[in-house]
Amino acid sequence: MNMNFDNFTNVASSHEHDLEMSRAFPTLMRKVYVWMAMALAITGVVAYGAGNSPALIQMLYMSRGPLLIAGLAELGIVWYVSARINRLSLVSATVWFIVFSALNGLTLGWIFAAFTSAAISKTFFITAGTFGAMALIGSTTKKDLTRMGGILFMALIGLIIAGLVNVFLRSTMMDLIVSGIGVLVFTGLTAWDAQTIKRNLLMAPDAGESAQKVALLGALSLYLDFINLFLYLLRFFGNSRD
């Protein structure tokens, strides 16, 4: 009887948890996209300011050193937040996300110096439409995309290696091929991440700070998908100022 009672208690507790998370889910998903939009806005404002400042252009983009340091700092922040999210407070994690998005804006300021505003705007809206469609598919599809995620991550590793090789080869054709693959990879990763965020939120232990941290990490993942998709599409749709 004791065992039956314990089983009943566990089932009831599980049901209450599922009910709590299903009720909180819409709010948590809104937070994911609000945080992502906030980060994109910060990145855009900082990048615009850096790309239109002759002094910052001279300091940041005339040599590879500052960009390399900024890039390494960004990788360090992503690793730190992802690895220590359970130990960080929600406020601290949010501050690190803001710092990361501002730093990324500095590294992307060259876009406003290299491309016309019309080209950037056009590419942004194309990216937003593609991203929105894939995020919706990932959030609503009943198909498990886990296997696709593994394939996409292997493709991403190959993409990074090919990009590094082409830094030395400077092949226009290879650059176009890498860009095309990049668009496909981050289009797929958007759907995969959207489904993963949904699954992780529903599995969170409660709807409090722990779930909000899951939402924040989800916002970071989708932010990175959006930025990378935008950069690869810009190579196709962007018109250089030259």
What does this entry look like structurally?
This protein has 242 residues and is an all-alpha fold. The chain folds into two domains: 76 residues; 127 residues, no CATH class. Helices cover 87% and strands 0% of the residues. It is built from nine helices and no strands.
Question: What order do the helices and strands follow?
Answer: HHHHHHHHH
Number of domains: 2
**Strand percentage, roughly?**
under 5%
Quaternary state of this entry equals single chain
Uncertain stretches of 5 or more adjacent residues: none
Termini separation? 80 Å
SSE inventory with pairings:
Elements: H1 2-51, H2 54-61, H3 64-84, H4 90-107, H5 110-114, H6 117-140, H7 146-169, H8 172-202, H9 209-237
List keywords for this structure.
2 domains; transmembrane; 242 residues; membrane; Bax_inhibitor_1-related; 9 helices; mainly alpha
Brief account:
Helix content is 87%, strand content 0%. The protein is an all-alpha fold and 242 residues long.
